[in-house]
Amino acid sequence: MAFLIRSTFDSCSANVSNNVSHFIEEKQQEEEVEEGSTDIKFDRNARAPTPNPLVFMKSKLVLLVSHELSLSGGPLLLMELAFLLRGVGAEVVWVTNQKPTETDDVIYSLEHKMLDRGIQVWSAKGQEAVNTALKADLVILNTAVAGKWMDAVLKEHAAQVIPKVLWWIHEMRGHYFKLEYVKHLPFVAGAMIDSHTTANYWKNRTSERLGIKMPETYVVHLGNSKELMEVAENQVAKKVLREHVRESLGVRNEDLVFALINSVSRGKGQDLFLRAFYESLQLIQERKLQVPSIHAVIVGSDMNAQTKFETELRNFVSEKKIQDRVHFVNKTLTVAPYLASIDVLVQNSQARGECFGRITIEAMAFKLPVLGTAAGGTMEIVVNGTTGLLHPVGKEGVSPLANNIVQLATNVEKRLVMGKHGYERVKERFLEHHMSERIALVLKEVLQKGKHYSHS
């Protein structure tokens, strides 16, 4: 049997999952042929086809402006929206505002992934971008930093474009609240934010710190792609992936694996996770608990960047002599193999937490319990005590997280029940069609506002 494994998108980086042979997509392709029109999608649980909620975007011209093109959450979410819009026949143009002058393999791969789907990729600073912005039915700015593009590129044309701008914001950190980034924010057609927590934070912070008012703001929770759900629900695929990844890490099938899957940075809390993991090992030894060997996996490493923070992580592992228990994996676009191979996801984002945390709902699709910080969008996803366990941010959260690791390590029934409840929660509210329906409502309103402005 051959396997194609995809997360939100196909992998474009070298990682262990590239060695997994490809899962054949004949069944999906047969269904697409039978369905015919791209304007109709089939709900596997329904007997009749349901209209794609984004079908009204057919033939609309949409300009997507991203502050960067990378493997981080914001650009990947915008790419996913680009694919959804192309799927219903919209004309989509992509520009990246901040692009390195030298060749970058990740950017090259992501751009060609878009080109292969019929998305036009243009220079952010060229006249083509300005002309497209003026003609577009809708302009979507991705992240707060993308706001600089309007002054730098549109210049005197900014006033014509602003009324048809939807601003998609994912940031929670204070340094994004600069007037040079968001001075046009009160005048755009709307802001779309991934969680209620983040929306409230932006409303309060812009008013108190910058003295500006947010435009009409829409909260849109994200959803898992159909491709990821197909892997998550395929028992044979998960078994193959689990065996392959564990073999590559040197982890036995009976061992327990706790993983944190995020780009390595202090804000994602890998350092505090490793401290909690080490503390859990001590607790198990002190209490003489009979548990399988436990391991910690950090997916999102990048030693090529030679960051001081990652060096600190590796030094900590060496000092505590837990090299045989901690495994670093390079950052990757393909998370499905790791979700299939682990037992518990740790979401340890610090400060105000994650704006939403896509990896959290992806893990729940794989029936994994989640140990998350009680902050940000995680609190809108994880039901404490039911689909996972929450702990405080900061150093105060280290011991509670350690205790939660021990609790799940010693109770297989709790892990399984939490994973089952998490999967049910995903099926109820965090699927691609849920996200499409929520985004469709926003786009309809924003398009209507743009039309009203142009007529007036």
From TrEMBL:
<dbReference type="Pfam" id="PF16994">
    <property type="entry name" value="Glyco_trans_4_5"/>
</dbReference>
<dbReference type="InterPro" id="IPR001296">
    <property type="entry name" value="Glyco_trans_1"/>
</dbReference>
<protein>
    <submittedName>
        <fullName>Glycosyl transferase, family 1</fullName>
    </submittedName>
</protein>
<dbReference type="Pfam" id="PF00534">
    <property type="entry name" value="Glycos_transf_1"/>
</dbReference>
<dbReference type="GO" id="GO:0016757">
    <property type="term" value="F:glycosyltransferase activity"/>
</dbReference>
<dbReference type="InterPro" id="IPR041693">
    <property type="entry name" value="Glyco_trans_4_5"/>
</dbReference>
<keyword id="KW-0808">Transferase</keyword>
<feature type="domain" description="Glycosyl transferase family 1">
    <location>
        <begin position="243"/>
        <end position="424"/>
    </location>
</feature>
<keyword id="KW-0328">Glycosyltransferase</keyword>
